[in-house]
Amino acid sequence: MTVRQGRSRWSVLPLIVVIALIAGACGGAAATQAPTAAPTAAPTAAPTAAPSEASGGTLIAAWAGPCCNGVDWLTPWDGGGDAHFINKYMSRLTTWTIKDNLYDQLVGDLAESWAISDDKLTWTFKLRPNVTWHDGTPFTAEDVKFSFDLCLNPKNSMNPCQYGAPLYTLVGAKEVQDGTATEIAGVKVVDPLTIALTFTAPNALFPINISELFILPKHTVGQIPLDQLKTSDYWASKNIGTGPFKWDKYTPGQSIELVPFDNYWRGKPKLERIIRRDFQDLATGYLAFDNGDIDFIYITADEVARYEANPNAVVIGAVSGVQNSIVLNRVKHPEFDNKLFRQALITAIDRPSIIESIYGGNAVIPSCLYNPAISQGSHGPWEYDPAKAKDLLAQSGVDVAGLGLINMATYYGDQLSGNVMAAVLKNWADNLGIQAGQVQQLDSAAAAKVYTGDATFDTYFQGAANGPTGDRARNYFTSAAAFPAGGNGYPGFAYKNPAFDKLIDEAGAEFDKAKQDALYGQACDIMTDELPWLFMWHTKRFHVASKRIKNLILTPAAGGGSYYDAVETWTVDPR
Q1: SS3 (DSSP) at 279
Q2: pLDDT computed for residue 78 by the predictor
């Protein structure tokens, strides 16, 4: 077995970090370069932030905005953008440090080190010793194996396991996904602190991609019947993890409270309590921040100037790595299955004007799913061209009158997103003659029902998290993708393209960065041409934080982020 020591500094996503907030607002994000494969060894520990002189305090915050499902969405594997809150009490195998506004180094979290075999088919992870679950039970390789097996089990009612795509090419993964096996044959427990993972082909990116999947406790979650996992009261009452804080109190519709885990392996946290507050809308959350009732909250771009003028606050902004896209219901409207019509739709949207007038210039137009740091292929983004849109519509042969009223649904509840969606519907009406229906801004449960439930939507405005490599497309668009349940678009539609599958598989197996980039570029060209979704933009996102918080590391990363934020060192000055 070969092992290469050392850490590579890879600029992954443009992110902003605020450490020991004391004054001023953050600047723009820096340019970045995408990584290739993961390093074959990890350092023994992640660096920690410089501790504050003060200690204690209760942090009260609103994990809100476009990213999050809210306090009543308790299961961790379908938590969407709630990752930044979930990682206060749960952990992954690997994570990222942040330096100079960037994802900096891939480091071990529950894993202490990892290595690749000579044939590049088997990754072996050494787990961190002396880590315990919040109830005192030792964390072992059995928990990792249990989590991987459960993630791919189709009977698991928590599915979709949103970040399970790194597991798809494990030996035996397909059998578990097909329901003919319950354990992944390629996952072997070597000893309590060692696990070996064998793949059907080299998986160069596994240590990177697995950095988003939370590891669950076998001894507790394993006792819950598979068909009851989503609805079990375990998540509201216990929710055991290995993170720096542990579950204390859940008040439906209002809050979740966490308290320090004294035996956290990096050291007991300084904060006395973390309270996550829930708000029905962002405006109510903003009022709570203005009154000093909460310590940070997501803000939309149109609120930035107001909070930059607040002497008691710091605005934190960065390109989030979230791809906003529009999904088209091809089952309800077979016309959307026409590629030329989809191309007409994207060409008819005046994205530059929407970005400038509504987002205040805080967005970048990509070619495909990938964040701008990753190869965008040779095609380049579709440009706004009403005449070309009309020509493509004519070539498609689609009679837009037959569509009827076209609504646009979303889970984004903020006014800015509503304005964006209304602008898109108006562009389609003005340039293509499509009858503009309603903007439907739904709560999380209602949005899930119309999207992955009964699929009654016409079009759907969403955010898709991007990772540090192009392999993120595997989650959404490869034939084996399991996100969301029922297909990688919604029930009844799953994008399937063998040529695309081949490119993603070849890129994921490639350890040479230049070759990997070229393969992802070709995959991007396919996405740009076929438009399984209408790829819109990557926005810059913002938070506002109170200057009372010390040692804060916070960034609007995709999906809430998989990064080490040194929360055990945070403190909050008295109100």
Answers
A1: coil
A2: 79
Q: What is the pLDDT of residues 76-95, one digit of tens each?
A: 987 767 888 999 999 999 99
- Please name the residue ranges forming H helices in 202-251: 206-209, 218-221, 234-237
Phi, psi at 71, each rounded to 5°: -70, -20
Structure tokens at 1: 């077995």
The CA distance from 338 to 398, in Å, is 8
Per-residue pLDDT at 199 exceeds 90: yes
Domain 321-539: give its CATH code.
3.10.105.10
Identify each DSSP E strand in 24-130 by its residue range. 58-61, 94-99, 102-108, 111-116, 122-127
Paired tokens of 467: 């990772």
Show me where the domains of the chain are located: 321-539
Dihedral of the CA atoms 507, 509, 510, 513 (nearest 10)? 60
Read off the pTM. Answer: 0.79
- Sheet of 58-61, strand order: 58-61, 273-277, 255-260, 245-251
Task: Check: CB of residue 41 under 8 Å from CB of residue 3.
Answer: yes
Q: Tell me if 388 sits within 8 A of 345, measured CB to CB.
A: no
* 284-336 residue pLDDT tens: 999 999 999 999 999 988 899 999 999 999 998 887 778 899 999 998 999 99
Q: What are the structure tokens assigned to 361, written together?
A: 């210039």
DSSP assignments along 415-453, one per residue:
HHHHHHHHHHHHHHHHHH-PPEEEEEE--HHHHHIIIII
